[in-house]
Amino acid sequence: MRSAPGPMAPSQDLFAPKDSIRRTAHIQSLEEYQRLYRQSIEQPEEFWAEQAKALTWFHPPHTILDADPNQVDFSWFNGGRLNASFNCVDRHAKTRPGKPAIIWAKNEPGEYEVITFRDLQHHVGRVANVLKAHGVRKGDRVCIYLPMVPELAYTMLACARLGAVHSVVFAGFSAESLRERILDSGAKVLVTANEGPRGPKRIPTKAIADEAVEGLSQLEAVLVVRRTATEVNMQPGRDFWLDAEMARHRGTCPAEWMDSEDPLFILYASGSTGKPKGVLHTTGGYLVYAATTHRYVFDAQPDDVHFCTADMGWITGHTYLLYGPLLNGTTTVLFESIPTYPDAGRLWRVVDDLKATILYTAPTALRALIREGDTWVLKSSRQSLRLLATAGEPINPEVWRWFHDVVGEGRCPVVDTWWQTETGGVLITPLPGVTPCKPGSATLPFFGVEPLLVDDEGRVIQGNGVSGNLCLARTWPGQARTLYGHHQRFVETYYSRFPRLYFTGDGCRRDEDGYYWITGRVDDVLNVSGHRLGTAEVESALVAHEAVAEAAVVGFPHDIKGTGVCAFVTVKPEWQEASTEQMVGALKEQVRHAIGPIATPDRIVIVSGLPKTRSGKILRRMLRKIASGELDNLGDTTTLADPSVLDELLARQQPVARPRS
Ligand code: PRX
């Protein structure tokens, strides 16, 4: 067995664990973490068999791990039969029916709705019966395109109850993106809403969905949540109001017995090619991993109110808003609004109103709030908080300190969690009150996780004080099993760059203390406001515009978003007289329409040529440097086929460059 990089006693710039975190039965000391970590690496099957006991199994697994690394085929908990919805809902509805399962914080401040475990069971049962009445059976796919409303949670859990596979699509995605996802997953039913209030805006979800599904014969029904009083087009025979359908059905619906490896959900993620990938998670391993990480990473307590600000359209929403907390019987907050609506005090108001104990958010949200000044935070009490956590992108040390010192008043540990859609749950993280932290480092691996740093030639880099490509040496229960319908693409994407190792696409440094520091993507994926965006996706959207000849998209440091999107575009000869301002406006609209507002380029630079090698390859590295204002070292410019292209780019660099302040 390969020896795991053992966490060492760290030496400098540490935030010592806080005594104020309530010590519980979970993990009490760094030594205990180290001992359990060693056990999880040396005896993974024993370790995970023990963790699996936290779930209710209709039939226990006979084999904990069955792996065929040559085929990139991993099975966890074989022989086990269970149901996700039963584990999240029924067992708690039985033992603590009146406990709030979900608190819905509506878009308007001060408006809340409490859904107890008993209510949840009832609503989930009804939605499950509605889905069944519309022909949904075990294994069928259901696409969910909803704003952050309780019906979103009900529908996910209803699918799980029937053994149907949910595919949630973020309600900020365009009609084109939604259509692509419905087609790829072969969804039979789409669940949407008439519209979705989000901050000052209302997203016309039904109108977008109508455009997305036009002419699609695969859809048997579109179920529509009535979120507002707004009337929308309802196509007879295809569209049904969900509330009316629910009223016609009973609240009890038996839970299907699912095999551990039966699919639970598909979630599309961007990659380095133009097409989003349908990341597939299965039932037993994902649930065990979600429950275990939620328990340890957030030190879950029976009276917690877990406030995760992520949208359900991303993996953080799936694992740490819905499945993780509910599996552990924790009250979870479903936040419909945005942190800046109606003002920058909104998150703290929700924390105080609901007495939230845990706040899990993204560095990009914190950066936006810091800009508004401390008064918004200081006006609130925040005494209920005991734990702060972030995910999705590297957190700048100064933002970490602000979160720790100003929001948490130095009382609450800050947990910087590193993971991915494909990992199902957190892989590198401090354990609160246990791991001494260094601001900006995700610190140490979670149980059962063996990170490796690998150089570009595929050699594993040993020791500390080193950097490389972040890989994972072994499988863990929450790992995605495949890309829906494209297993070969799964193998090529994650297991071909470094054979037999899972390649994350991230660069990483392991410091002198064995702490991990994620340095960002090393592939053509951008992390914009904590959301993954493939540069190829944006390029495809741009070249789909009739005026565009070629496009190259790169990232650049952005104060709020972490990474901004910069597009270099050449236009066709017949469009060269068009006004630049109008062209830029039209191209931004083009991307917004093709992908969604999150992908809108911050900068579009129209040039007469892109820098290319003589063999025609675009020199992206050079464009990245120009976009970032790093003009001192542009690399080898002698390879340029046409050096005058560079002169033009440099002459235009002023409006492009926006170095991090
Ligand atoms: O680059 C890493 C970054 O987000 C990517 C995964 O994005 P996604 O699949 O959307 O999953 C988000 C789940 C939190 C990673 O490859 N990333 C995620 N967390 C961190 C991070 N980068 C630095 N620090 C983190 N804590």
Instruction: Tally the beta strands.
Output: 30
Detail the poorly predicted runs: 1-5, 655-661
Q: Please report the number of helical segments.
A: 20
Integer-rounded radius of gyration: 24 Å
Helix content: 25-40%
The largest beta-sheet arranges its strands as: 12-11-8-6-7-14-15-23
Q: Which superfamily, in CATH terms, is the homologous superfamily of the domain at 529-657?
A: ANL, C-terminal domain
Reported for the largest beta sheet, the result is:
8 strands, mixed
Could you tell me the mean pLDDT?
Answer: 94
Question: How does the helix and strand content classify structurally?
Answer: alpha/beta
What is the beta-strand fraction?
Answer: 15-25%
CATH architectural type of the domain at 529-657 = 2-Layer Sandwich
How far is the first residue's CA from the last residue's CA?
46 Å
State the CATH class of the domain at 529-657.
Alpha Beta
State the CATH topology of the domain at 529-657.
GMP Synthetase, Chain A, domain 3
The dominant shape is: globular
Ligands in the model, by name, code or SMILES, are: adenosine-5'-monophosphate-propyl ester
SSE topology:
Blueprint: H1 30-42, H2 44-52, E1 63-68, E2 73-78, E3 81-82, H3 84-95, E4 100-105, E5 112-116, H4 117-133, E6 141-145, H5 150-162, E7 165-168, H6 175-185, E8 189-193, E9 196-198, E10 201-203, H7 205-213, E11 221-225, E12 239-241, H8 242-247, E13 258-259, E14 263-269, E15 277-282, H9 283-297, E16 305-308, H10 315-327, E17 331-335, H11 346-354, E18 358-361, H12 363-370, H13 375-378, E19 387-391, H14 397-407, E20 414-417, E21 451-454, E22 466-472, E23 482-483, H15 487-495, E24 502-510, E25 516-521, E26 525-528, E27 531-534, H16 535-543, E28 548-558, E29 562-571, H17 580-594, E30 603-606, H18 620-628, H19 643-651, H20 653-656
Parallel strand pairs: 4-17, 6-7, 6-8, 7-14, 8-11, 11-12, 16-17, 16-18, 18-19, 19-20, 29-30
Antiparallel strand pairs: 1-2, 3-13, 4-5, 9-10, 14-15, 15-23, 21-22, 22-24, 24-25, 26-27, 28-29
Helix pairs in contact: 1-2, 3-4, 3-5, 3-10, 4-5, 6-7, 9-10, 12-14
Bound molecules: adenosine-5'-monophosphate-propyl ester (PRX).
Adenosine-5'-monophosphate-propyl ester (PRX) binds at residues 269, 314-316, 391-394, 416-421, 442, 504-506, 518, 521, 527, 532.
